[in-house]
# Entry
Amino acid sequence: MPVRIEAEPYPLQIDVSRSALVIIDMQRDFLEPGGFGAALGNDVSLLKAAVEPIRNVLNAARETGMLVIHTREGHRPDLADAPPLKVDRGDPKTRIGAPGPMGRILVRGEPGHDIIPELYPLAGEPIIDKPGKGAFYQTDLELMLKNRGIETLLVCGVTTEVCVNTTIREANDRGFRCIALSDGCASYFPDFHAAGLAMIKAQGGIFGWVSDSQKAIAAIAAHAARAPKMPFGIIEGGVR
Ligand code: TIU
# Structure
């Protein structure tokens, strides 16, 4: 049964049982000193603001049994899936694959590639390892969402204008309703964060909506008040 979620450019009705919380790239490589974000010359402390809002929505989603998906940007240790043009940028000592304080930068299996402890996935929560900025490019995310009958994505993570925006654009073109959670997104550039959100909701919601963590939690709570906890597995009308 649909519930109302306050959002811009206008509130909408969503079916929480057909919605997923998608947490983009909350990895040590982007949020902690010595990783990929810092290697690009960024102040990584700016991304910390998103952690608590995401944590709060994550708790609400877990409580009601909503599908939670985590993504990680990174590459195979042999870098066979990393386009040379993506690797060959910046100082060779700090580029993708180079050794750093958290292991090889943006390489799967290294400590820096993993998700920060505050938002660590629970067993059963899918993790999408993606080689690009968008979470649909060369991953099985679309298949997973369609198999579970998902139609709405609550999207948060980092960075607003890069991987969050790219993923929302990809999702919108694939027919998913995307709602970015403003305080659950962050950027190394506050202006880009604001512009990244503004672009989503402009022109009547050209590729999605913008809401926030409290509004998402209110919608999830309204659903939970009506519906029993949703177990993973087969439900009436489809598979989740
Ligand atoms: N550099 C930057 O802003 N972002 C990325 O490289 N990846 C993600 O956004 N995850």
Summary: The first strand starts at residue 3 and ends at 5. Residues 234-240 have pLDDT under 50 and may be disordered.
